[in-house]
Amino acid sequence: MTPTPDAELDAIGLLCPLPVLRARKRLQAMAPGTVLRVLATDPAALVDIPHFCAESGHEYLGHSPAGAATAYLIRCQNGAQG
Question: Domain for residue 47, yes or no?
Answer without folding.
Answer: yes
